[in-house]
Amino acid sequence: MYRGRFAPSPTGRLHFGSLVAALGSWLFARAANGRWIVRMEDIDHEREVPGAAADILATLSAFGLQSDEPVVFQSARTELYKAARDRLAAAGHVYRCWCSRSDLEPYGGIHPAECVAHETTRPPAWRVRVYGEIRTFADAIQGTTTQHLARTAGDFVIWRADTGCAYQLAVVVDDAAQGVTDIVRGADLLDSTPRQMWLQHLLGLPHPRYAHLPLVLGADGRKLSKHTAALPVDAHDPLPALCTALRFLGQAPAACHTPHALLAHAVRAFDARAISHATSTPAPFVALRKDVC
Ligand code: GLU
Questions:
Q1: What pTM does this model have?
Q2: Does ligand 1 come within 6 angstroms of the Cβ of 266?
Q3: Is the distance from the beta carbon of residue 40 to the nearest atom of ligand 1 less than 6 Å?
Q4: pLDDT tens-digit series, residues 245-255
Q5: Is the beta carbon of 195 within 6 A of some atom in ligand 1?
Q6: pLDDT tens digit string along 234-290?
Q7: Domains along the sequence of the chain with CATH
C-alpha cells in the first residue's frame, strides 16, 4: 500500500514552494490509490512562528488537500526520537560534540571524524559517524544521485545542544513509524536524502522510494525571495495558485470552479513523467486570475 506524506515546518504561512510539495506528494499518492498524510515538523522552536501550524492546515484544507489520518505533531514525539538516539549510541554510532560553527570553519563547516573542540560544561550536540559511507540512490525525478557523506556532510548532528532532536533523525524515525513508502518533496532536500538513508540503515529501517520535485525559483533565478511565489498562497482564492502549481509540475489544469473538481481531474490525468527535474520559475499568479480557472 502506497503511503505518502507532506511534512511542513510551521515557520510561516504556506507559500507556493510548499504548495507544490503538498500537491506533488498528494498527486503521486492519489494516483497510486494510496494514502496521503500530513505531519507537522514543529521541533525547531527557534524557527517556529506562532499560529503557523494551524494556518498551514487550514490553507491545505481550503486547497482540497486533507490528511487521510490525524495530523502528527513532532513536538509530541520526543521520547521516540530519544529512543532512536539511544539505540544509535548503544551501537557506538553517535558521540557527544562541543564543536561550534567557528571551530568547524577551517574544515569548510564539515565535521571531521574527530572533534576539534574539547568537552565543556555546556550541553553537547550528538553527531552520528558517517565512516567512509558513499550513498547512491535512484530518485524518480532527479535520477541517480550519489553522495560521499564524509566529504559533503561529515559526521552530522542528530541531536542539537539547544533544541533537541534534529530534523534528519526526526524525519527518519517518523517516516518509518508512519509506514511511509514514498517520499515526494522539494529538490532542496535532495542532498539530505543520503544522510537520511544512512540513518535508516543504522537503525535497521526500510528505505522509502524518493521523488524530488523541481525547485521553485524566484523571477531573478534565485531561491524564492520577494517574488509572487514566495508570498503566502491565498486560502480564500485557491484556484489560481493551484492551477499554477499543476502547470509547474507539468500537468495541464482543467477549467473547474472548485479545488476539489480541479484535483479530481488532475489525479485522473496525472502523468509523473511530465514533471521536469529542472528548477524553474512559476508563471505569476496574476496572469492566471484571468485564466480559465
Ligand atoms: N519539514 C521540512 C521542510 O518543511 C520537510 C521535510 C521533508 O519533507 O522531509 O522543509
A1: 0.93
A2: no
A3: no
A4: 999 999 999 98
A5: no
A6: 999 999 999 999 999 999 999 888 999 999 999 999 999 999 988 777 765 543 444
A7: 3-77+174-288 (3.40.50.620), 79-170 (3.40.50.620)
Q: Using the structure block, give the residue that is written with the C-alpha cell 532542496.
A: 188
What single-letter amino acid sits at 273? R
Strand ranges in the chain using DSSP code E only, listed in sequence order = 3-6, 35-40, 72-73, 94-97, 125-128, 134-139, 143-148, 156-160, 164-165, 182-186, 209-213
Instruction: Give the single-character DSSP code of 28.
Output: H
Is any atom of ligand 1 closer than 6 Å to the C-beta of 214?
Answer: no
Residue 6 CA: nearest ligand 1 atom is: 8
Nearest CA to ligand 1 atom 6: 7
- In three-state secondary structure terms, 93 is coil
Q: Is 185 in the pocket of ligand 1 (CB under 6 A)?
A: yes
Ligand 1 atom closest to the Cα of residue 8 is 4
